[in-house]
Amino acid sequence: MISRRDFLQATVAASAIWGASGVGKWSRLAAQQVLTQDQLLEFDPLGNVTLIHITDVHAQLKPLWFREPEVNLGVGDVAGLPPHVTGADFLKLYGIDSGSPHAYALTYEDFTALAGTYGRMGGMDRVATVVKAIRAERPEALLLDGGDTWQGSLTALRTNGQDMVDVMNALGVEAMTSHWEFTLGIDRVNEIVESLPFPFLGANIFDAEWDEPAYEPYKIFERGGAKIAVIGQAFPYMPIANPGWMFPNLSFGIREERMAAVVQEVRDAGADLVVVLSHNGFDVDRKMAGRVPGIDVVLTGHTHDALPEPVMVGETLVIASGSNGKFVTRLDLDVREGRMMGFRHKLIPIFSDVIAPDADMAAVIDGHRAPYQAELDEVLGTTESLLYRRGNFNGTWDDLICNALLEEREADIALSPGFRWGPSLLPGEPIRREDLMNATSMSYPAAYRSEMSGELLHTIMEDVGDNLFNPDPYYQQGGDMVRVGGMGYAIDVSKPMGSRISNMTLLKTGEPIDPAKTYVVSGWASVNEATEGPAIWDVVEAYLKRHGTVSVEPNTSVKVSGA
Amino acid sequence: MNLTRRGALALGAGFAATVLLPATALHAAVDEALAKFTGGAAVGEGGITLSTPEIAENGNTVPVSVSAPGAVAIMLLAEGNPSPGVCTFNFGPLAASQSATTRIRLAGTQRVIAVAKMADGSFVQAANEVKVTIGGCGG
């Protein structure tokens, strides 16, 4: 009799061989310029259950450029492990040829050149084509949305997320979990949740006063003759990382014991397969998968990692499906006798020039965009530099935003939060209002201007640094380091909180930051209620219109060590 | 399904030690409170479960739950508060369960310690690191 472990390992090996051949084939195809939709969708079906996962779309309905990070450090036990592998190391780890479509989709190297070769990625009309194709082959496939869906664009902001709700309903999502959704405010969230034809899951969302579950924790689906429990896990640090006053009566948290209890509950209810649809972030999910027994699959989100193969934690699969509509995961599972016996996985890259748009979905999208089209298309300036956001310490989009804050708000120092959403722009492209809103659109955009002591600045830097580099993933919040304009610093990511940040320097004078002195600081997206200031997009728009063409110099003001 | 936080604790404790060791005065107050509660008896581990958030959503009101089946009293300490003593729960012989939930105020990132006095006069303790943060930037 073959044990479950043997079976899994056999399938893992098969999957790896399959994956590698897929990648190799792509490279050859690319050389021949014949990347086709059929090849992108090619999948040798397995077992009786199919899961489709998409996450962190951030309201991106149209195809886009999205440069993956160059710097994505892991600390403690996960240093050097996926997803903390980038560039050439990533290509080597997964056996991907540099310059291939997979290299363009999954890494940052030669981004501008490869973008010209392979085109934009994503687009929810293309995603719809992929979902329909999978469902044509596997009618009972279960489509799950990991959240961060209703925020991130001008149209999502103006329609209070309705454009995304309509698109995801048309796509046929069957359950979702959440994070930025709550920044629409609790009343709007509940209004949408009541209208949804599918459950809004969050086992870790509690009423703060009564300590009772506030949303459905899980749903059990019957598919392919198996009972599949899908447990939702919302972003744990919602009231800390985002404005808690927008959803004042809710408490979140990792709540590991709660997850263990819910897993037990669904197993007792006869679940053959337990899937956690999570917005924990990769490292938190990896730790949770290793500590909570009984989870078969974690569909992870939040940290925007795209991995071409599952990461195994014991016998649990952790699946990372990227962000911004760049990828859709198809996961076929063999579920029998109350157990997961094998899997086959594919991270399907949505090459928008290769995958045909679905006409029905395109109509839904264009219908929502039509009232705003002129506004979206207005050109505010031109960029000579590649603009991107991802990276632990800085990105050119935030350098541009910080430059605008320094100039427009006459500040010594500018702070831009370490968000991971926001697509890229290529050198020479116009910056349209849509592009600016894709990098800034949210419900608490006030660009404050205030005085801070050098000591407070240091405390803030240490605090945010610990959110990213605490060696225990359960203490991490999943964003990147706050981006800083006008000030340089050194960071040793291996040190404990309070001693990571040193050599803080005011760039315009070259002088060290004095803890006792006050500095004029401008930033945006404060989690504090009643923050005053113009919206960040108005600040950047004024800057762009004054400069016309902008270029962003390489940022060398952050010195990183300890990695 | 019995989960303990010990894995997290091991990490948290080491981390806390580096940060909080200089606060010798506070440690003296913690040691004093411990000595008073235990009468100097050795304190073991296991048989006590302390539940706290890893990161407090609001440092002014942090939910803390503690459970120690068979305990006659449980003392809570907030190691880094100016006055570390939080409270002591006493359980009579008719108590249906030896568990309690309360909300406490934490001055900053620190360990919360729970010590239980068992019916046989022995003591056990558990401790969790609770981070009090000034807010971050979600992804």
Automatic annotation (TrEMBL), chain A:
Molecular function terms from GO: hydrolase activity; nucleotide binding
GO biological process, one term: nucleotide catabolic process
CDD domains per the UniProt record, alphabetical: MPP_SoxB_N
Keyword Ribosomal protein recorded: no
Gene3D superfamilies in the cross-refs: 3.60.21.10, 5'-Nucleotidase, C-terminal domain, 6.10.140.570
Xref: SUPFAM superfamilies: 5'-nucleotidase (syn. UDP-sugar hydrolase), C-terminal domain, Metallo-dependent phosphatases
Record keywords, A-Z: Hydrolase, Nucleotide-binding
Protein name: Thiosulfohydrolase SoxB
GO cellular component: outer membrane-bounded periplasmic space
Domain called 5'-Nucleotidase C-terminal: residue spans: 396-523
Pfam families hit by this protein: 5_nucleotid_C (PF02872)
Organism: Thermohalobaculum xanthum
NCBIfam families according to UniProt: thiosulf_SoxB
UniProtKB/TrEMBL annotation, chain B:
InterPro entries with a match to the protein in the record: SoxY, SoxY_sf, Sulphur_oxidation_SoxY, TAT_signal
Pfam families from the UniProt entry: SoxY
Every Ig-like SoxY domain range: 36-137
Gene that this sequence comes from: soxY
Domain of life: Bacteria
Keywords: Signal
NCBIfam families: SoxY_true_GGCGG
Protein name as it appears in the record: Thiosulfate oxidation carrier protein SoxY
Signal peptide interval: 1-28
Upper lineage: Bacteria, Pseudomonadati, Pseudomonadota, Alphaproteobacteria, Rhodobacterales
